[in-house]
């Protein structure tokens, strides 16, 4: 998924409790689903960031030398400015883009 084009809030936002629990009728179940989705998003973003930063990796045994790479800094800054995975997960939840099911009720 493309998390870079999300409309999720970058700052703290107060959400309507009724809107969050609307699809499940249970706030705890809704929060659990959102948390699991946020974990998935965080894993995807972390894997993507590590892959991009590995392109800049230089392996040497000298501890005195520190290489600063402007592209590497720009990539890191870009990922720091993205909304948090929890905010992206809540946004997806409120827009009904998260598939969930409860096997106990089926």
From TrEMBL:
<keyword id="KW-0804">Transcription</keyword>
<dbReference type="InterPro" id="IPR006110">
    <property type="entry name" value="Pol_omega/Rpo6/RPB6"/>
</dbReference>
<dbReference type="Pfam" id="PF01192">
    <property type="entry name" value="RNA_pol_Rpb6"/>
</dbReference>
<protein>
    <submittedName>
        <fullName>DNA-directed RNA polymerase subunit omega</fullName>
    </submittedName>
</protein>
<keyword id="KW-0240">DNA-directed RNA polymerase</keyword>
<dbReference type="GO" id="GO:0000428">
    <property type="term" value="C:DNA-directed RNA polymerase complex"/>
</dbReference>
């Amino acid at each position: 998924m493309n998390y870079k084009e999300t409309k999720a809030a970058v700052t703290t936002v107060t959400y309507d409790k009724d809107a969050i629990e609307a699809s499940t009728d249970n706030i705890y179940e809704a929060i659990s689903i959102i948390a699991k989705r946020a974990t998935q998003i965080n894993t995807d973003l972390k894997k993507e960031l590590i892959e991009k930063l590995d392109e800049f990796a230089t392996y040497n045994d000298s501890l005195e030398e520190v290489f600063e790479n402007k592209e590497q800094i720009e990539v890191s800054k870009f990922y720091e400015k993205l909304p948090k995975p929890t905010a992206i997960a809540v946004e997806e939840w409120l827009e009904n883009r998260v598939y969930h099911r409860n096997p106990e009720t089926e």
